Amino acid sequence: MPCMGRLDGKIAVVFGGARGIGRAVVSAFAAEGAAVHVADLEPLEPGAEPAGSVSATRLDATDPQQVADFVQHAVTAAGRVDICVNNVGIHLPASVVEATPDDFDRIFTVNVKPAYLACHHLLPHMLARGAGSIVNVSSNGGLIGRPADPLYNASKHALIGLTKSLAVAYAQDGIRVNAVCPGSVETRMVRGDLTEAEYEQRVPQLVSSTPAARVARPSEVAAAVLFLASDESPAVTGAALPVDGAKSAGVLTADRYRFDIEVNRHFD
């Protein structure tokens, strides 16, 4: 008898699922038996989906009509959507003085509006069924203050506020809403245009303020999303789960804040 996947028979939509953390979530969901509908501006990166099925639609997740059409298509195709993951986001490494009003509008439009639109269009379907799990991808910048990217962090705080408010509003209706809050993760947002050698030189700087002294893999964040999305966490709602090597848990001793820290390779 074949083993049951943790998401067998589930229908999931993943906004921002083409690459990085979102792509890892898509692969994890499909491997656990879910049928996954992906929405992203970019084409889906190649990946292994050994169990479930994956379909991809290229769209602008900040456009209300495109999101409405995508949700309706997903609901019509299977009769329901069980899981929604909101992973659309960009970074803005600029101070409040440096950032322009246009920067402010763009960071909130890209980092918050897609999650609002997805919830706005999906919640009526979930409410009609009395079931659903929504996971928003925030950041540890949504849990703590960080001086280098305050507007990005403000947008990620907003996502956590949305998460908690929706969790309280719909808990009695059988709908759970949670967030994951990654720290440094090995994605294009972190790597940028660096060569492999340049990236390896930068890693000690990236982890200098992280107690675990390592950069996480996208698959590790996906594992947290999978737990929150699955039926393994029926009493978990309104959570903002850090996946950041304890960075948001507190401060380190002064001697640890240095750029020549030895990178933790225990998990490699």
Q: Report the sheet-strand fraction.
A: 5-15%
Uncertain runs with pLDDT below 50, 5 residues or more?
none
The pLDDT mean sits at: 93
Helix content: 25-40%
Order of helices and strands: EHEEHEHHEHEHHHE
User: Which second-level CATH architecture applies?
Assistant: 3-Layer(aba) Sandwich
Structural classification: alpha/beta
CATH class: Alpha Beta
**CATH homology superfamily:** NAD(P)-binding Rossmann-like Domain
Largest sheet: 7 strands, parallel
Distance between the termini: 34 Å
The spatial strand order of the largest sheet comes to 3-2-1-4-5-6-7
Number of strands: 7
What is the overall silhouette? globular
Total number of helices:
8
General description of the model:
It is globular and about 55 Å long. The chain contains 8 helices and 7 strands; from the N terminus they run E-H-E-E-H-E-H-H-E-H-E-H-H-H-E. About 45% of the residues are buried. Helices cover about 40% and strands about 15% of the residues. The longest helix has 21 residues. The chain is of the alpha/beta class and about 270 residues long. Strands 3-2-1-4-5-6-7 form a 7-stranded parallel sheet, with helices on both faces. Helix 2 packs parallel to helix 4. It has one domain: 3-Layer(aba) Sandwich (Rossmann fold).
